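Risk register update: the risk that structure generation would not scale has been downgraded. Supporting records follow, first protein first.
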Amino acid sequence: MKLTIDQIPCDLDPSQRIALDYDAQDLADVRSGNKGHALRLRLPATRTNDRIFGFAAEPYTGQRFNAAQHTAVLSDGEAKLLQGSVRLLSAAYDSDPEGYLIEIRSGTSEWARQAAAEMFNTLGISFSGRLTPTMIRQTWTNNTPVKFFPVCRDEYTPELSSVELIPVERFLSVDDYHPFISAATVVQTLFSEAGYTLESDFLNGEFFRSLYLSGAYSSRDTNALRNHMDFLARRTTTAATTANSDGRVYANPYKSINSVGNFVETVNPNDQNDLGETLTDVFSNNHCFTVEDGEIVFRPMTSVTVAFEYHIRYITDHRILDRNRLKGIDSFYLGDGTEVQGALANRYADRRNSTKPAFQYRAIVFNHTEGNSYRLTCTVNGTAGHAIGEFDSRSALVTTPSGSTVTAPVLLCKAAGSTTYTTYTGDWALYDGYIGETGQTEVEMTVRTNPVTVTPTSPKTFSTIYFYGAEPGMKFSLSRQCTLRPDFTGAPGLNTPISFEDVARHRVRKWVVLDALRHLFNLRFYTDEETRTVYVEPADDFYRLGQTFDWSSRIDRSQPILLGDAAQDAERVRIYKYREADGAVTRLNATLEEPFGQWRLVNDSAAAIDRERSLANPFFSPTVSETECYADAPSALVLRVGDRDAPDTADRNSFTPRIVRYCGMQPLPAGERWGYPSTGDSYPLAAFHRNDPDNGFTLCFEDRDGQQGLHRFYDTQAEQEKRCQHLTLHLRLEPCDIERLFQIQRLAPCIASAVGTLVMAFAANKPFAMAPGMGLNSFFAVVVANIVTLTGMSYLQSFQTALCVILIEGIVFIILSVLKVREKIVEAIPLGVRYGIAPAIGLMLMNIGVGSNVGVYAEGNGYTDPFYVMRDFFGAMTPSTIRDQMGQEYSQMVLSVITMFVGLFVIVLLAKKGKKSAVLVGMLSGSIIYWAGEAIFLHINPFASLKGASFLPHFKDMAEVTLFKFDFHDFFQIGNILSHVLKHTDDLRDQFALVSFGVELHALHQALEICGFFRKRHRKISFPAVCLSLTFGLTLDSAQIFARAGVDLDLFALVDEQGNLDLRARLDGRGLGDVGSGVALDARIGLGNGQLDEVRRFDAEDVALVAQELDRGVFLDELEGVVEHILADGNHVVRLLIHEVVQIAVVVAVLIILALDESLFELCSRVERGLGHGAGHDVLHLRADECGALAGLDVLELHDLHDLAVHLKCFTVSEIASGNSSHKNIPPIYV
């Protein structure tokens, strides 16, 4: 074995046995990652170890090893057996033996440490808003991690209304909804905040993602505040008044009409109400609640933040408005921004489908028009058309005739001025006869306001309360049962700003919630620290993740093999249950044989331990759902929480944590309506247990009402404990076997890319990874759009037709590739065009993006067409022109332009520095700037559009619509699409123009490179050469050769005197084929074959560069051969100077350090680079009577051109090498 500390090898004691310990039960303990496993080792006091531990055994000079964090790795060969933090326990000094005792702690995880140390409400879950009816309603259908589900506080059966034979109408308030937090979001955030990736099919599945755990509001200790400033106030009388012309009634002592006076009247326990009952429950501690100048006031002893709980009960006149609503007082304002807008529900049953003979009914026509007459008919004893009443008002009483059956009432209408009756198509209803069109409704509601700060000098008054929603003159009476009391808990009230921290005030740490979920589903946790991945699955699924190994051959037969019943470690009775329950669950358990939510496991093996063990969930309690909670929707299944028998001092807004499953919006039966805040015909259904034959489920551990309980996650384990045996044996394992024990192998997420990569690796022997090309998506979208536009097909038909196009294109591409036609097509494309395609595509995308996609809708054109950046913003004559045209959206346009240029600048800057992430970083920086600009300067929430968005594709719809759905019938019907496309040749012309422009860009780049523009130390750029290069495109003519040599073309009066350079022979094909950037030395001179020149003779044996057959595309495996043949003796030949009979090779650098230098690839990619690159900037001066040539150029007859005479001076290599940065510190060579 080998031990390293901070990657430094340590000396081990060879006699010491190292025993690795591992317990699989740690997988079921979420806290094991915080504790880890400890291995203690004693290391000898060698010189190596002394240096590692800083001579810690020296009492005076030693260093403190534990002052910093250290990492140890224990391995055997290539197998890593143990890795973790290391600490020094002791250092033996002047003893036998001397050495160091260390402890390596492995298996610890940062996520486990954070979960054990941090409180639950510190999770960084994104949620914020105001506690309003709108927000509550929106959470039911959007993707927010916090949803507000209706709950019914446990209470005694409400009394009947004093004015009707139905229960009092109870308005729902924000207190009737409780926050619930997505369990999947909790787990995902817990791991991601610690820097880990969660891998779990179960936790990412539909079932777990539908689970929500109850939140909790702030629940501080309020006893001191209650003892000093608490109060309970009531009314002593029932006050009555009428609504004013605006339909309002005030609770203001200073108003004499349309007012009921103070909302409450007394806190004196000796007072009596108007029924003679003594109000024994009212009080006011320290007289904080009093009446001052006829107005009720709360004046605290000290400054305090307090909310107020109003219990409101009143009777209002009403008129039946339609089949769903009544018109009457249904809304009220309580001051401090607390306003409740309710709706009186029409709870009267429509009897049209259940008429009886000889029964009186009231017919009401909701949309009655003055002048219309009505006739009501029905079917009596099977005979239709029997008239039972005629009337010309909005409502009337009718009586059905006697008979055995009276069914199918039909309302006929005769319009004003008409003489015939026709069937009435509007809405109408038939109610019981005792119900009038007008009547009275009794309403009850409890509201907690937004907390406000109240001081002794700035007390709270209650004179701004009013009720509204009635018609003028409607009667209103405020019941003596109204109460008012303070709430010091700090819990949010109506219209209070809230965040995740406010709704998750559970006083537990994160690990408790995670452990509670582990307990419910028998989860196993495994952390791969190298990849920072956490694998979580139920036990049965978890052990299927790894690979199965057959270790039968590894058994050590020389050691005993022991068998024992697994039941000997299990209890005879094991109970899986939830924590203690409250109110409704306690009463339900009194009627059941087995408690609600509890599963009793009995192990009938005789080897089991004879005792009972209870395994209670550490966090969650069971929950009962009941109907008949709300009068307007009696069939709604609502969670009942709390305890009606709890003491009055208990927090009425808190209850033990629950876990429920959200089933979405559930439709209500006909005639039922959900109340505040939706008033719709559906409600949000969340339940712990749902007894439904079609959509039922249970979160109980036991089976209940035919639904399978959570014991299914423990069944396999329980069966193993009953029937299986423990096997104890010895195995002889290699280190790699031990390492594989802790490796979880998962399938790659993209099977297609994985298979393609493997094929490329093993079949084609090309080291590239494959992934889908996004360009094909754009082409596919264009094909679909064109088919729709030109043929009139539906999008579904065009989509399936376009799939045929893609299929055929793929087949043709495969055929071309197999027959090697594709390569020939590519090679046939001129090099310039190939280089020009890439910038052309970039320009085309930039034109599409900036020209027709970056735009802002503005008021200037009525928000119909956008103002584009290129056309409108930059195309405007002056900034004021476009500003006046756009109006207030001009700021958004400026922000878009700034963002665009900042992102482009970042991309160019990082690309110049060689950063591979340039594009991504540029896009991200531009996005951040735009988001910040919107939020800071435009005051717009940049993420508002994400609300309600779905980020998961509809895989089911995709499979049904597109998977192997090829529409060949319509494919053959679009044969004329080519003719339509050819009509739009303007687009093709623009694309070819862009390609042409890209070619010119490449030519410009080549010319600048030839002139040394891109070198670090360039001497001179010949402007005529640049112009000629652009003029001739990519043709490499004599002008470029002169520019390459640094020769100013203006010095040559008669360039063509030497003949047409293009007609001269290139280098011998056997030596350097296809030299694109150079011209041969002379038609009769072959490099390496010893041919004679008219003037000079090259010595074949002394030629520095030996001609060889070399491929044009030099890469990887061919590099070694190129180096061997071109770079003689491992030296880089930059320039071959030829003068007289002296051949001098300039040595610039040793190739060992230039094997991957870009200058090497310049040399090797084409041979002429080795000859034409480098020392060519200085003009050579030759003697007037001698001829000379530059290596790599044509041999010129210079005659008497004195400007080109060779001037023999001493040049250093750096001058000859034209400034290559790698050619430094070499002694000068004299010529």
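Supporting record for the second protein:
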Amino acid sequence: MHQLYSSIKFYPFFILLYLNSCNNQTSENPSNIKPSPNLISFESLNQNSTKLADKNFELIDNSYSGIDFKFDLGDFYNRAKEYIFATPMGGVATGDFNGDSLPDIYLTRPSGGNRLYKNLGGFKFLDITESANLDDKSIWGTGAGFIDIDGDSDLDIYACGYMTPNKIFINNGDETFTEKSKTIGLDHVAASMNLNFADIDGDTDLDAYLVTTTKLPPEGTKFGVNFVKQEDGSEKPVIPDEIAEYWQFIYLPNKKVHKTEAGQADRLFLNENGKFKDVTARSGIEGNYFTLSATWWDYDSDGDPDIYVSNDYTGPDMLYNNDGNGFFKNIIHSSIPHTPWFSMGSDSGDVNNDGMIDLFATDMAATSHYREKVMMGNMNDMGWFLEHANPRQYMRNALYVNTGTNKMLESAYLSGIASTDWSWSPRLEDFDCDGLIDLFVTNGVIRDSMNSDISIMAEKNFKGGSPEWRKFWTNQKMRKERNLAFKNIGDLKFIPSGNSWGLDHDGVSLGAATADFDGDGDLDIIVNNADGLPLLYKNNTTNNRVSIKLIGNNENSHAIGSSVKLIYSGKIQYKEINPVKGWLSSNDTTLSFGLGETTVIDEIIVKWRSGKTQKLHSIETNQKITIRESSKYNTTDDKNVNNLPLFSIMKENKGITHQESIFDDFNKQPLLPNKQSIRGPSLCWGDIDNDGDNDLFIGGAANLPSQLYINNNGKLKLSDSSGLNKHAKPEITCCIFFDVDSDNDLDLVVGSGSNEFPIDDSAYIDHLYLNDGKGKFVLSSNYKAPSKPTSSLSTIDINNDGNLDIIVGGSSVAGSYPLSEKTYIMLNKGNGNFVPIYNKSLNSTKLPNDIKVGDIDNDGNNEIIIACEWGPIRIYKNSDNGLQEITTDLKLDSRTGWWNSINLNDFDNDGDLDILATNFGYNTKYKASISKPELLYFSDFDESGNFDIVEAKYEGDSLVPRRGFSCSQLAMPFIKDKMKTFHNFASSNLSEIYSTTSISSATKYEINTLESGVFINEKTQFEFIKLPPEAQIAPSFGSAVTDINEDGILDIVLGQNFYGAQRETGRMDGGLSLILLGNGDCSFLSMAHRDSGIHILGDTRKVQSLDLNNDGSHELIFGLNNGPLLIYSRQ
């Protein structure tokens, strides 16, 4: 049945091909020395004679494979807490320990001892544990791997133990092993999860990072606190060192402190002539956390391995940057926007084929509405943590996209892989050999401790760790879940493929490892199951591929930390050799590259951990290539070879910041989707002192002063006598400089908004400040604005009298979102006198976020264009008959969104104005479409006299609530009485929770478009074109249009991210702001962040382009809410 293979054909080398590789040395290898021919060998891959199944993967029966490994949990009762809270079990490793080119398998379990299975070929394996001297039933097996620890070229085995000694089995070369952990210094006894080997200091031998997790305090251990005197005279509570691995403090603002459980400190061991020395204390590795996994990856491409550490629960994930000498610095706060909350396994790989390694980290976010709501629990219990963790932690997966700068994008929602259920071991590999890295994830859990009904019941009835508690959880069933696979379709998008590929096993799967078990060049999979026998999958993919095995010429014989780049048909693939991936798993080091229909690889570039580089040219596919490291190649140093980016920050204008006032929007409206009080900063530029350059006004947040900066040859200096910082109460949400009174200087109109004050409060009155011609401003009494919050302002001569009037966008009614104030006109009566005029045509505008004026139809008269929240882009024509809405006529009414800003320009060079409209993008939990929009209902659902918000989405054809049981019943107590349990709430649709009558009678809001894009003006209607995927990676609240690359074509600059979402949603912060280069036809290409120099972590709200220092080149200005003003100039 399984005799699928042709005989192996081995070629020592291809003379012509090899000479080609030797005669094409780059300038990085100036010696031009030709290595001996045996450095490179080629071997034809085994080919499947036929594809045996419709699915890409074939599950091999265990009775055929001989893998009879039975997972044994042992004494669950006494290990209940460890099993439930740490799950230290389920490791698997692949590697060719006996050098026969057939990768073998090592499986771990918490009881009964680990097992080694020798690959016999043809997917048959033999358990040789006893004969190999590996039988050790005392070990609580966790992570394991094949690694050449002693540098003799054959693979040894490490096996970690949870509270049992770690084991190092040295390969004797005759299919037997000798345990030598004590001899070499790695017999550490701890809550060990895994050992990750890498050459951290570049001395050619392998060092080790030991991952440890939580353990129970010994009986009788008492909690205690020390107090440390602070500079202000206060005393800070700290955990004593002797109990720091059991408890920790998390320090919050205003000197609040939370006590949580801690874990053991991870360890770093330096290899000193074959003996391992604990150098943790001087390495920079820090913290006592529930560490579950760690992944080596050279994220900054400097040749030195860095490491991502996944910490469960309240422990922050770590990203340690390696300085090359074995010292590490945690840079996660400055490089990554947020992390998973309950981090488990992680994996690295180049998901977008840009030659940089990305990283995927798993959590336990549910893929179904029911499971999501059952798991949510009481959000108030951990609300403090969601709002103050640094960096923020959210219960969802994270995909960190490497930008080649010191900051990363995060795209899991956009990529379709934010939720993969209770996920342990991710594997990023090209499983269908099409040239794009796919994703496989294992799922399931030993006990369903995240089921809120079950956990609340247990907490209420039993003391944690008591005999009754242990018995209760011992008697619970495992929760089986489907393993998932996702096909990479490019543009950072993945689609579910587990069913079509045959990888959708339903069970409790933990560790997973890959290897080419049959020598055909594609990767097969082995999975360790807690609820049954392991899963062995044979990959039946038929696309072209190539396998590459690297052999180092030093102690690092399997080239850990080396990389391989393939270049072909204008494409690249890039992989590193770091075997430890996922959950307690390690993988064979032979690399597999899928190539689709490509038959020839233009170039293969190998960069060894030593820094040496080798290149091969014109390589045929469907081969296994073995490359041995030459000792004669010169070492290269390409750490700083990148070209300078286009823009850099102007150092002379650092220190200008916007400070946000503290206000809890959710106290008044607990189910409010997003804060309404953080609209700043408002920025406007104008030459207020008539000296020929633009000065800057920054509107202040509520109860904080505004600021005026005077420009002197590009340097901005704060004015302390402008008169604009005297009125600190209003929150300035928008502003305009223009000459109100025709005295040839710029006056200032400011809009006051937010929802931090009562309805009709004087803080909502807009103001006019008159300029004395020298940059001093006086408040005008002739601007008769109502006391209603404002969101946006724009000028237009509405009545053609030669005076500019002001269109005022009404913000949401204070404390009553989504109700909207009216949008109206402040009519200029001349000499600086303004009165409000309400036009019925504008009544259709609700929740306007931005207003622009432009001649859309080229008739000589300006139209009013308004970006609305929960509505379309609205256009009003100004004619002799007054204002007339033409939104429907122009086919704009069909696209409703959360439109944040607009910009008018001719993007397709056809002579008319198109509309750039920014939105929330697709990297959030919200997913709107024409057929399945996002919905919001507003009504007095509980008949309390107060209106409540109910957000809704589609789950299949059923309408279900966005918010959870806990927060919903806190806002409307009748829900608790009616639903009673999380199960009931999760099982009910919207009408079953709130009644059909209450839903049908509520005011309904809906959106069907979340993408940012350009509405192309086609004269009689507008056609919507989405911006590239990178533009959808975060909400955008501001844009600028300019010619970045000076090619005569308009480009776009987007500000990205939003920090105002309610805590259940979390920050929408996956972006770094972005430049899009125009092609002249309304299509755009994203400019790499490393090339542009623009990579901003923060809540960017405003983007502007202007020549600040009159040098003929425009600067880019980014205004961040509660953050700095960043001004970039060309280098």
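The chain has a mean pLDDT of 94. On this basis the risk owner (M.S.) recommends closing the item.
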